[in-house]
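Worked problem 6 (solution included).
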Amino acid sequence: METIYNILKTEHDQISDLLRQALQDGSKVSFFKVKLKADPHMMGEERLFYPVLEEIKGLRELISKAYKEHNEAKTLIFEMEVMEERDEGWPTKLSELKQSIDRHIEEEESKVFKEARNFLNQEKAEEIAQQYIEFKRSYMNRIETGRPIT
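Solution. The predicted structure is:
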């Protein structure tokens, strides 16, 4: 069975690929592909993965930093949603978003995952993975049906 680490790593790779594509073509369509992948990813981490890790004394500081990195990315995404790709600042914002997310991914995979594996057993990592999969399924269903995300 998959662990939360495998799922998040796969999504990190997908988000990185989408960001590279968005940076190459500079299109708003490519940006929205990043947003559609990153929004539920961050929300799922914040609802299901981070709270478990916050309970571990040695991880509180790392998780606090992860929340800050998410907020930075969310702020950039929000700012970009109202911009046009022809705006002068669009390429710079897109580059900032890529750098911000790349930094976060590197930190999460090299530090957070490594430390979490010392505290969470395989069964717990699989349980969180299942909860995460269910959350994402529900999230995407709400997007597709136009219902609010709660």
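Discussion: The CA atoms of residues 105 and 135 lie 21 Å apart.
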